[in-house]
Amino acid sequence: MIRRTGKIALEVVGVAVAATAVLLAVLAWRLSSGPVSLPILSQIMEDAVAGDLDGGRLEIGDTILRWDAARRQIGMRVVNVVVTGADGNRVTALPEIAFRLSVPALLRGQIAPTSVELYGIKTTLLRRATGLSFGLAAADAPIDDTQSALVIGPMIDALIDGSADVPILAYLRRFAIYDATLSVVDEVNGVTFEAPNANLTLLRGDGGLAAPLSADMTPADTTGHIELEGALPQGADMASVKMQVSNIVPAALARMSPAFHNYGIGDAPLSATGNLDIKRDGALVGARLEVEAGKGRFVIPGLAQAPVDLVKARAALTLDAVARHVAISDLTLQAGPHSIDMTGTADYVLGEGVDLTSVTLDLKAGKTTTEIPGFFEGPVTFDDIHVIGTLDLVNRNIDIKEAVLVVAGGKITASGIVGEGARSPALKARATIGTIPINEARAVWPVLLSHKSREWVVKNLKDGDLVGAEFSIDVPADMLADNEEKHIPIPDGGLVFDFNVRGATAQYLHGMPPLTNVVARGLVGNNRFDAWVSSAQVTVAPDQVLQVTKGHFTDPKLSQKGVDGEIEFTATGKTAHILALIDHEPLNLLHKFGMDPQTIGGEGTVNASLRLPLLKDVTMDQINFFGTAHAENVSIPDI
What pLDDT sits at residue 8? Predict the structure, then answer.
């Protein structure tokens, strides 16, 4: 009896399997001739998920089956899908969803997808402190993320956690969104933006989860592109993500959202490739990036009057997002025809969300030629650079803890604060300068600092060396502009530049032979410029050299143009040479009396004083000459 019952049972099972096989064969034959519409499956699926919608309702317009011969899978496509909430409101309306069904599940009498694909939808990736979630809507519909998460949430959970809390999702291994509009809402960082043309796929295998994503980004008036390919091993809390982005403009992010306000200093397209370490909740832990910037412009906080026109840049960075530290193994900036290569570190502080508030930099560079129009007059070559300072992006200033610049073998050491102003920066800084060739020292004298003094030095002083100097400045915002444009004097003590020169060549009056081998001290301060010459030479003609001492040049009012300057000096030598000097163009003092200096013998000393307006073009009528002379062994022909 037992054996007979067992035999009957086996026969029943056999018949059931055979019948199922015949039915599947018939179904396969029918599908091979084309897609099949099965409204009854729509009803089955509506009933299957009803219990998971908390009183809501799923409505399916039609269900279509098709056979994928290549994958040997049954595919299902549902159209006109509508999800209604418990209160009757429409949560989601989707034009089309594609499925691939599990054949083993069908053999068990269960409809279960192995793959789900959504097309042309609008979806929201929502990040909250509690984690990540998705919301869905039709492309032209608003999103109710609370209700619509009920549709996609279980699918995401099934893939990420490998859970099967919803039986219909027990076989799900793939979820994809194609041609979607992705709205990213990061409530943790206060960032919201849209990413059209989004394609996202979640794949689950035995080793864990993989998730490639590609999408455009349209901040402000720009279009960038992002591609991510992530992997989350089974049971891990950290995902490894390969990243590639292109044409992301920081200034456009600033225009798009206040959350990126301080990114407005960089207006150049960025591209980057690298690897990210991201937690399951979306928090960034670290990154290794290769970043490139294209043609554009960036502004250094505090120096808005001197924006840098960027040709291109590249950087190799390692980010520790927990410590908020960046190791810079290579940073190359090209501005104009010149470039600078740097290494160092950056430590940053975030304000609200992801908005940078400050960056502390420690950067080093070797031999570098740079050019910043509006700050330096022309190209400047540094042998070595080391700068430690903080960029305050909120208050728009630079706090330079230490800057060491080596120019032509000489060292400049500086520290101070540069603050932003509408027309010129606020400056409070000190610097010491070692021995530097004067021609190089002129190049590194910033255009903004004591423009009139700088103009005189550039025009009238060259060659030789700057032998030790001290510089200090303490001026409020726009003071330098007022000094230059409105001739308002810098307050006493606000600007002091005390320097010494050796072996220089100085031009004191256009057309006159210059002073050579000059040893002198210069002082800019209290709205005046003084230079004292302790020794120099004047070559009137070949073999006609005078020794000059006790020289003094003064510009008594730096804030004003065209004021009278004074030039004083004592010259010693042969009387003929001294007289030839004061008879030189444009003075011509002796020719007025019909005298030829070369015919006069003896030796002598002259104490000369000239007063003349400090203008580019000066006529003889504007020059006042005073002097006293002492001569010995004088001989005059025909006397």
Answer: 31
pTM, two decimals, is 0.74
- 278 touches 241 (CB < 8 A): yes
Report phi then psi at 259, rounded to 5.
-65, -20
pLDDT tens sequence across 437-488? 888 887 777 766 666 667 777 788 889 998 989 999 999 999 988 888 888 8
Taking alpha carbons only, the member of 401, 266, 392 closest to residue 333 is: 266
SS3 assignment, position 166: coil
In the DSSP assignment, the letter for residue 283 is -
Neighbours of 42 (CB within 10 A): 21
CB distance 163 to 118 below 8 Å: no
Asked whether the predicted pLDDT for residue 228 surpasses 80, the reply is yes
Residue 1 has a CB neighbour count (10 Å cut-off) of 5
What would the two tokens of residue 399 be? Answer: 């706090």
Are 410 and 435 contacting, i.e. CB atoms less than 8 angstroms apart? yes
Q: Could you tell me which of 595, 511, 577 has the C-alpha nearest to residue 541?
A: 577
Residue 62 to residue 624: CA distance in whole angstroms: 105
CA dihedral 201, 205, 210, 215 (to 10 degrees): -10
570/552 Cα distance (integer angstroms):
10
Number of residues written out for the chain: 639
Closest Cα to residue 520, out of 543, 544, 537, 496? 537
Position 164: which residue type?
A
Per-residue model confidence as pLDDT tens digits over 40-95? 777 877 777 777 667 778 888 888 777 666 656 666 777 888 878 778 777 677 77
Cα separation of 561 and 540, whole Å?
Answer: 30
Show the tokens assigned to 300.
Answer: 């250094």
Tell me which H or E stretch contains 12: helix 2-32
The residue that leads in pLDDT, 109 or 459, is: 459
Do residues 117 and 96 make contact, with C-beta atoms less than 8 angstroms apart?
no
